[in-house]
Amino acid sequence: MVTTPLPVPVKAAPAKAVAEPESFADFWDAYEKKDGRRDAVIAYRAALKKPGVDSDLLIQSASEYVEWAKVEGKYPEYIKGAAKWLRGEHWNDERSARERAKPRTKLDGFADVDAELAADEEGHSQIRSIGGAR
Fold it and tell me: Structural domain boundaries of the chain?
């Protein structure tokens, strides 16, 4: 009887490790959207090679982008992935952040009426003191 050896399972080759620049961890912390780290490292290294770009610019701009997205109501659903943000050179974007207006409630309306009544009382009390008691 001839026995054939059992097939030896072949392990998949590990993905090629990508060396991270020293400052990448600070960028990754600032960006907050934590997906696609390997692609982000590659894009980060490429961005650092562009003229006028350094790690401080990327980290600061990433932080500002995340804050802008929060103010605009785009965070976290509509924020770009870090690699896409880097490849698109979005550190050059100009954003005018607006102050996020919170929705008004009935309570806000009551507070407005209360403030108007208080102002009216203030005005009437000054009239009484000027004109004397009636």
Answer: 24-92, 102-134
